[in-house]
Specification:
By secondary structure, the protein is an alpha/beta fold. It has a single domain, classed as Rossmann fold (3-Layer(aba) Sandwich). The protein contains six helices and eight strands; from the N terminus they run βββαβααβαββαβα. It has an eight-stranded mixed beta sheet, with helices on both faces.
């Protein structure tokens, strides 16, 4: 897949970039892909291309643009520390407004036919949850979302189906947080939680340890 950067107009003025990739068929349902703390980097674009190969029109908006446009970080210790610094300054509530603007652009694309889902990893996992609660996205998938338990008051606002993927050893989304999330959706059969034994945070990332890779295809199949 060959993606391209497009402009997304922000409702409060200005614009930001989003990485758009189209399936070989030329059209398909949409995915709003929500970034990790490392920006819409090469790894995140690879994820977008991967889902385009599955037949989806994918848009990954640069949600760090209000801090600094075009942030692309790798996974070294120094880059992680820099990414965490951005995360600490990040306005999640504003980012959902930006995600909603990107969602409108995605739905308006002639290639986007049918429904649109939100998909996010790490920080994006929480943003997928908030997007499901605050926008008209049709469904959502959260991979090891961090801090969702702090916003469970919004759980009732989620109208469509949703999947949560969690890693057993994840200290950023620990067992206590996972149990709170499961309890909040206990009466919702259309919202599913999956736990991957022996896996740690970011088990589905391309940079993750090979020993966790066996769980990634299983999670991907569930997501699709």
């Amino acid at each position: 897949m060959a993606g391209q950067w497009i402009d997304v107009a922000a409702a409060d003025g200005g614009s930001f970039k989003g990485y758009l990739t189209i399936p070989a068929s030329g059209s398909g349902p949409g995915i709003l892909l929500l970034q990790e703390i490392f920006g819409v980097n090469a790894s995140m674009r690879e994820v977008a291309d991967y889902y385009a190969e599955e037949g989806y029109v994918v848009l990954a908006p640069d949600l760090f643009w209000r801090l600094e446009p075009g942030i692309e970080l790798g996974y070294s210790e120094a880059e992680f520390n820099k990414a965490f610094g951005y995360y600490q300054r990040f306005d999640a509530n504003q980012s959902i407004k930006d995600a909603a603007d990107a969602l409108k652009v995605l739905r308006a694309r002639p290639e986007c036919v049918g429904k649109v889902g939100a998909l996010g990893f790490c920080l994006g996992g929480k943003l997928a949850y908030l997007t499901a609660a605050r926008t008209d996205v049709d469904c959502a998938v959260s991979y090891y979302g961090v801090g969702i338990e702090a916003d469970l008051a919004e759980a009732a606002a989620i109208k469509g189906p949703m999947v949560f993927h969690f890693a057993e050893l994840d200290r950023f989304a620990p067992a206590e947080a996972r149990e709170q999330i499961k309890a909040a959706f206990a009466k919702r059969p259309d919202i599913e939680c999956y736990l991957y034994p022996g896996c740690d945070h970011a088990f589905a990332a391309t940079s993750s340890s090979p020993r966790w890779r066996g769980s990634t295809p299983q999670a991907h199949t569930t997501t699709i």
